[in-house]
C-alpha cells in the first residue's frame, strides 16, 4: 500500500501571499535554528529542505571578489555619466552575471551589497570612488537606476536583492569606527537621508548596511532612524545587514557597551537583522544572542522579526520557487553585449574639463602618451578580475597605429646599493605560475596571502634596475624589469611577486627614509626596514637594524617623458591614482594636490611640448594648475574598456559628455575639516560653497556647442512644469546634459545657492533641436523646518535656472509659490529640543540616550553657543528649566542681544552621561524673541522648557 503524499507546507505554496508564506516558515523553525539565521552565513535546515544562505555579495561596478567578471567604470564614473538609462543597463548586466556565476559556484551570493549612496561631501574621503555624487538627487537617481537593474523587472521575483551602503553620514576613514558625525536635523533630512529615502521609495531596494561610524554620538548599528525613517518609506520588509566586524566594535573599539550580549541585543532591537562578524564562524554571534535571550535582553519575538526580514528577501529571490523563478536559467556572462556596454559606460564617463581646440586629435597626429597610468588599467578593492583589459597606450595604438604613438611611463629607474657595495638583485622567475595562490574566487580577498613560491631578492655586483614610483607622501612602489612589484609575504622575504599593489594591507609599498649617508627602505605593510640576510632580502626582525641603501638613479622619469613629448605633435599625460594607495577604504587622502612625481612629469611634458593634454584617471578630484594646459580630461578608473574609451574620445570618435558629479575645489584651503558634516554651516558642496571652484558641479565640455532657449514654467497643484529647448549648434553628433536648478529668492533660513532638481542626457545631431520638459514636485522646493520638526514649503519667489552646469546657467525665470508662512516656535507649550537650533558654534550633537534622542554639548569641554530664532513666549513665562547631564559646566540663557538672563549649573555631576537632571531658574519673557544659549564645560543639554 502506497504511503500518502505529505501535504505541501504553506511556505512552499506560491499561490499564497508572501507574508503568509514567511510567517508559516518562521513558525516551523526552532529558536536555535532562527538564532543561527542571524549570522551572515545562515546554515541549512535539512529537515525543512532549506539551503544555507549567505548575505552579501560585492557588486559595486561588476561582480567582485569571485573571479573573472565584466568590470565597469567605478561608481563615481557611473555617476559622471548622469545617465540613468545607461546605469540601469549596467545594473542588469551585473545581476545577470551574478546569476550566471552562481549557477557554477554556489558561493556567489544574490543579496548584493551595492550600491553605495553615501554622498561625496568631502573629496579627501578615501572611498570617494564608491559613491555617485555630492548631490542627493543625482545620487538617488543613479542609485535607483542601478538597483532597478539589479532587481530585474518581474513583479514578484528579483534577479538580485540590492542593499544600500552605508547608513548614515559616512565620509571619513580616519577613526571610522570611533568617530562621530555631528549631523543637525536640517542636514540629516535635507542631505544625508534624502539619497537613501528616494532610492528606497523607488521600490527596488532589499535593505541597507549601517556604516562603521557614529552619528550624533550613537553607533550607526544602533541608529533609531532605521525604525523612525527607513522602515516608514516602504511597505516591503527591508533587510539590515551589519558591516563586517561592526557588531563587535560596539564593545571592542567603541566601548559603547560592556558586554557583547548587551551590544548584540541592542543592535538587533534597533533593526539589524544579519550580523557580519568573525567571517564564516557563526558561533560567537549565536552564543551572544543566546546569552542575550537568557538575560532577558531579547525576546524570541525580536529574533523572529529579524529572521522574517531575511526570509522575505530569500523568497523574493525565488529560492523557494525554483520552478517559477524567471531568472533561474540566466547564463549571460561576458557576452558581446556586456563588453559593448562596458565600453559605452567608459566613454560616457569621460569628462572634458578644458579644451582650447587641441582636441579632438587629427587622424594624422603623432601622439606621445606618457605618465604613470599611461599603460595601466587599474582595479580597486571592489573590482572583479579582468577578463579583458585596455590601457590608454593600447587604446591609442589601436586607434592611431603603433607607428604614430610614442610612449614613456615616467618612472625613475634606480638601483639600490648596500653598504657592502653590492646591489639588490631580482632573480628570474620564468617557470612560476601567474597570480597569487587562492586569489580566484576569494570570499574575502583580505585573506589572500602573498606569494612564497618565488625566490627572494638577493644581492650581487651589478644588481637589477627597478622602476620607482612615488605615489605621494613618500609612499613608493618598486617594480622589477619583468613587471612584477616588490612585495613582502608572511615569511618576511622581499620578492618581485605582485602583478599590482593590492590587498587589505598593501604589501607592495615602501618608504625611503634618510639615514646617515643613505636611506632605510621601510616596508609600509609591516612597518619594518629591509635588511640583507644570508638567505635573501627580507624585512628586519623586531628591533633589528635595517640595511642602509644608496639610491643610484639611472634615469629620472621626466627625462624619458621630455624625449617622447618633444618627438610628438601632441603629448597626452595620463596621471592619477592607484586605487590601493593613498586614498582608499581605511585611508583618507591628506591633500587635493597631484603627487610631486606626477607634477614633475607634467611640467617636463609641457616644457618639451606646449600641446600637452592632461588626462586625469582617478577615483577623486584633484587641484591642478590647468591654465597653461590646452586640454584637460578626467575619468574615473573606467574598467576593462577604459583605454579604448579614452582613445576614442581623444580621436573624436565620441564627443565627451560626462559631467562632474562633485565640485572640484581649487585648493586645500577651500575644504572644511574632514569631520565637519554640517554642509549648511560649513558652506560645503556646490549647494553652499561661496568660493570659486577649479571646476563646478555639473561641468563638462563637448566637441559640439548647444543653445538653450524658450524657457517656460507653469505652477500646478502639486508641481512646477518646466520646459525649454536645446539645439546642437555644432558640427558633430553629441550628447548634452541639460540641468535644471532652483534657488529660493527670499528665504527665511539659509538655503542652497542653487540645487539640482532635474536633469536629462540628450543625444542630438548637428542642427537638431529637442524640447526638454520636467515636472518638478513642489516638495522639491521645501526645507526641513527645525522650529516645527517637519517639511515646509515657504511661500515666495523661486528662481529656475537651466543650463549646462551649476555655474553655466543659460536661462532663468522666476515662479511664485504658495506655501506655509513661517511661524514662531511655540516654546511656551513645547519647549526646545536642544538639537533643533538654527545656528551654532563650538558645539556638537551627542546621544541623549543609547536608544534615541539627541543632546548638545560643547566641543572638547570648551564653550559653545546655540541660537534659536523667533521663539514665541506667548503672554509670558517666568521660569526656565533645562534637562542636563554630566557636570562641571553651565547653561547661560539670553534673549535677543541682551545680557544673560539666567545661569543654570548643577551643583554636582550626574552619575553618567545619560542621567539627566532638571535645573530651573527665573526667566521673564513674553512675545517673540531670539534665544541664545551658551554652554560651558562638559554638560549635555537635551531640552529647555518654559513655564509660568
3D structure, described in words:
By secondary structure, the chain is of the alpha+beta class. 20% of the residues lie in helices and 27% in strands. It contains 18 helices and 47 strands. The strands form 14 sheets. It has a six-stranded mixed β-sheet with strand order 10-27-26-25-11-12, with helices on both faces. Strands 17-16-13-24-21-20 form a six-stranded antiparallel β-sheet. Strand 11, helix 13 (392-400) and strand 12 (405-408) form a beta-alpha-beta unit. The termini are far apart. The relative contact order is 0.10.
Q: Determine the structural class based on helices, strands and strand pairing.
A: alpha+beta
Low-pLDDT regions = 436-441
Please give the count of helices. 18
Instruction: Give the DSSP E fraction (strand runs of 2 or more residues).
Output: 25-35%
Q: Main β-sheet, in a few words?
A: 6 strands, mixed
Give the rounded overall mean pLDDT.
96
End-to-end separation? 88 Å
Backbone CA Rg: 30 Å
Strand order of the largest sheet: 10-27-26-25-11-12
User: Quick one: how many beta strands?
Assistant: 47
Principal-axes geometry comes out as: globular
Helix content: 10-25%
